[in-house]
Design a protein that fits this description.
Helix content is about 50%, strand content about 20%. With about 240 residues, it is an alpha+beta fold. Strand 4 and strand 5 form a beta hairpin. The protein is globular, with a radius of gyration of 20 Å. Bound molecules: adenosine-5'-diphosphate. Adenosine-5'-diphosphate binds next to helix 4, helix 6 and helix 7.
Amino acid sequence: MAESRRGRRLKSMFVSIAAHELRSPLASITGYVEMLLDGMFGVVSDKQTEILHIVESGVQRLLSISSNLLDATRLEAGRVELVLVPAHLSRLVRAVATEMMPQMEAREQQFTLDVAPDLPPVLCDRTRATQIIGNLLGNAVKYTGHHGRITVSLTLAAESGFVQMAVSDNGVGIPESDQGRIFNRFFRGENAHLTGETGAGLGLHITRGLVELHSGHIWLQSQLGQGSTFFVTFPIADEEPT
Ligand code: ADP
């Protein structure tokens, strides 16, 4: 038993060191690619620019995998601390949606945000809440094809003292047999492979960890071929945001 706990600790230490060590060479590659694109080392042809953008997006993917690995190991070790402040969830959702607008526009997806009137502010860590929203909205964009519809609804939750966020899409949906495993580390559904979308299967695992750290809950409703809705609750704050 002690052995396996030690093994788990070593494994998580290894993952965390490897992920951390990857970051500085990746940051330096990004820096040089940007300098090349800015023409600092001479004129860059259209073809070279295209290739450099491919390199840049590959490096961004590696950086996001490495920060997800770090987050997953930190959450498992109880090393993620929240800075809780009152915030209006609608503002955070709007900011994330604005950032994702180019991806949604490229797929001609329709985005709607519905906010219940007089919705109270929530108590959250703004960076981590933004990460939760970004992961759910990012998945909705990824797993909903062209011309799809994505809606975020903010209402009071059935559980008193909580606000509920529902992120809905009319995308590929998740088969019932996968729904119990969807929050497991590294789990990627068959549906995900079929769409050809990339991912490491860490997003929902981290999202659940972060939601629970906020004392909230996360669950889903989905039907294969019809779409999915992910529900998240956040505790209501006593004060207005400053
Ligand atoms: P990733 O997107 O990197 O594969 P996630 O942890 O975010 O990892 O999601 C795990 C799996 O859950 C995905 O691979 C996909 O099968 C499924 N999934 C998540 N969100 C959706 C969604 N909105 N629609 C359909 N499937 C989804």
